[in-house]
């Protein structure tokens, strides 16, 4: 009898052990589960703009490197402006303001101004500081330059200066937390968006992205096609030309924009005294840049430099919206007086162009981490020289070398965007940041998309109050009902939007 019991006990133990080993892999823990199963702890934002909008803020934990989810983590800061009618709430609308490197916690405070009450009733509006930016574990470089973008100047000596500066800036960034820096990429931010989606308790996300944010949104549709709902991509980027080609495309359109502004300034010659014709105004600006090269202004207290490398960037910053025409005229006058030896009011100058470009560290991390740039300095200089005849002000910027020429190769290949995810793409014929052909190209890449073209307009970002009721109606109808236009649409701006 004891022998039979012993044999039975041994056989049962064997069955249990075999069953245990057989079942083990089916219950193995997914290392990403702890990220996907978290829930936000909403708290006050302690930010005047967000608090005034009734927003709340939270942090969402994500892996630094999704290939090693049990390793280091980052905390992504998000904001929420709740749907105005909880009974009609259908989901969340994430957002990105552009950049790359733009902080986005406050984005929906502005974007919601173009939304109808019907749309506001249906969505929680979600802002986000992308990884490595703002409150989301921001990256830093040892040299805190305000931008990684410069114009190369007028000759090979000026270009040599920028080549050296790019190398030094790259070294100053890479000397820090290189593991963190190299994981600040668009693909990882798209993965973060999917963790945020799960943390918010929804199966799909809707999205509004502007400028670089359209590239991020397009990458998300490629990586997580079943998780996308209603996608609005405003001032779209061509994924195949991101990012070197995208900057090259900015040269010709900003020359056009400068001429357009010059025509406005000529009409106000009694106030600004740049010239009575557009040609005289442009000549004044080009001469001012040459004078800045001969007599640069260095503000030791603020570290501000006014010369042929920085002036074109200041001009470009204010050409993206005709409502800034007067501000650009003020900047041209400040710069012209400064290079003529008059005292330069640096604080006033900075106030006019503040927020014009994302901080250098975050921008460098994303652009250089997404796609490798050409390494050979001669390649850039050939392009600069080829552009000069037709792009005398902006060709040396649009084709210039950057820190990415000295950056390590990306950890992952760039995403190839080609899918049939529905999306509403907005593109502006005279967009100074993302040239119109870029939006047309993204429309081809997203084969189920519709393209809304804003004609006859020099502006970056077309979904905004008062600019074009046609554009706003297309966006609001899509977000409210899910219905894309039956065909591509061309809209006109409201003439009352623009300064005379």
TrEMBL record:
<feature type="domain" description="Peptidase S33 tripeptidyl aminopeptidase-like C-terminal">
    <location>
        <begin position="392"/>
        <end position="491"/>
    </location>
</feature>
<dbReference type="InterPro" id="IPR013595">
    <property type="entry name" value="Pept_S33_TAP-like_C"/>
</dbReference>
<dbReference type="GO" id="GO:0016787">
    <property type="term" value="F:hydrolase activity"/>
</dbReference>
<feature type="domain" description="AB hydrolase-1">
    <location>
        <begin position="92"/>
        <end position="269"/>
    </location>
</feature>
<protein>
    <submittedName>
        <fullName>Alpha/beta fold hydrolase</fullName>
    </submittedName>
</protein>
<dbReference type="InterPro" id="IPR000073">
    <property type="entry name" value="AB_hydrolase_1"/>
</dbReference>
<keyword id="KW-0732">Signal</keyword>
<feature type="signal peptide">
    <location>
        <begin position="1"/>
        <end position="28"/>
    </location>
</feature>
<dbReference type="Pfam" id="PF00561">
    <property type="entry name" value="Abhydrolase_1"/>
</dbReference>
<dbReference type="InterPro" id="IPR051601">
    <property type="entry name" value="Serine_prot/Carboxylest_S33"/>
</dbReference>
<dbReference type="InterPro" id="IPR029058">
    <property type="entry name" value="AB_hydrolase_fold"/>
</dbReference>
<dbReference type="Pfam" id="PF08386">
    <property type="entry name" value="Abhydrolase_4"/>
</dbReference>
<comment type="similarity">
    <text>Belongs to the peptidase S33 family.</text>
</comment>
<keyword id="KW-0378">Hydrolase</keyword>
């Amino acid at each position: 009898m004891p022998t039979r019991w012993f044999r039975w006990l041994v056989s049962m133990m064997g069955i249990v052990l075999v069953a245990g080993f057989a079942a083990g892999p089916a219950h193995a823990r997914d290392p990403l589960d702890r990220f996907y199963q978290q829930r936000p702890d909403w708290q006050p934002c302690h930010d005047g703009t967000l608090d005034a909008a009734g927003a709340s803020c939270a942090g969402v934990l994500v892996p630094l490197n999704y290939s090693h989810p049990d390793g280091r983590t980052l905390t992504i800061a998000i904001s929420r402006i709740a749907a105005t009618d909880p009974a009609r709430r259908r989901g969340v609308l994430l957002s990105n303001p552009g950049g790359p490197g733009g902080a986005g916690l406050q984005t929906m405070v502005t974007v919601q101004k173009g939304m109808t009450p019907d749309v506001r009733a249906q969505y929680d509006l979600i802002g986000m500081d992308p990884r490595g930016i703002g409150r989301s574990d921001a990256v830093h470089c040892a040299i805190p330059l305000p931008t990684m973008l410069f114009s190369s100047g007028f000759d090979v000596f000026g270009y040599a200066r920028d080549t050296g500066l790019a190398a030094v800036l790259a070294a100053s960034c890479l000397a820090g937390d290189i593991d963190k820096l190299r994981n600040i990429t668009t693909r990882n931010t798209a993965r973060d968006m999917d963790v945020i989606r799960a943390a918010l308790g929804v199966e799909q996300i809707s999205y509004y992205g502007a400028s670089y944010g359209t590239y991020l949104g397009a990458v998300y549709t490629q990586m997580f096609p079943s998780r996308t709902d209603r996608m609005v991509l405003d001032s779209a980027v061509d994924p195949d030309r991101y990012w070197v080609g995208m900057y090259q495309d900015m040269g010709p359109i900003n020359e056009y924009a400068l001429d357009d502004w010059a025509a406005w300034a000529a009409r106000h010659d009694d106030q600004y005294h740049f010239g009575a014709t557009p040609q005289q105004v442009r000549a004044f600006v080009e001469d001012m840049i040459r004078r800045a090269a001969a007599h640069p202004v260095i503000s030791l207290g603020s570290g501000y430099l006014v010369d042929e490398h920085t002036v074109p960037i200041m001009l470009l910053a204010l050409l993206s919206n005709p409502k800034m025409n007067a501000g650009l005229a003020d900047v041209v006058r400040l710069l012209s007086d400064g290079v003529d030896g008059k005292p330069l009011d640096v604080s006033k100058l900075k106030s006019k162009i503040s927020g014009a470009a994302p901080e250098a560290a975050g921008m460098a991390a994303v652009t250089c981490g997404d796609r490798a740039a050409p390494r050979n300095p001669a390649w850039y200089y050939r392009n600069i020289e080829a552009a000069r005849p037709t792009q005398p002000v902006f060709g040396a910027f649009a084709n210039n070398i950057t820190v990415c020429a000295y950056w390590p190769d990306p950890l992952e290949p760039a995403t190839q965007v080609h899918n049939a995810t529905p999306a509403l793409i907005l593109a502006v014929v005279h967009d100074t940041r993302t040239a119109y052909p870029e939006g047309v190209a993204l429309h081809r890449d997203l084969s189920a998309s519709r393209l809304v073209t804003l004609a006859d307009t020099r502006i970056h970002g077309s979904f905004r109050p008062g600019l074009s009721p046609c554009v706003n109606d297309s966006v609001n109808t899509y977000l409210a009902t899910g219905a894309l236009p039956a065909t591509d649409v061309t809209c006109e701006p409201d003439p009352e939007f623009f300064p005379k």
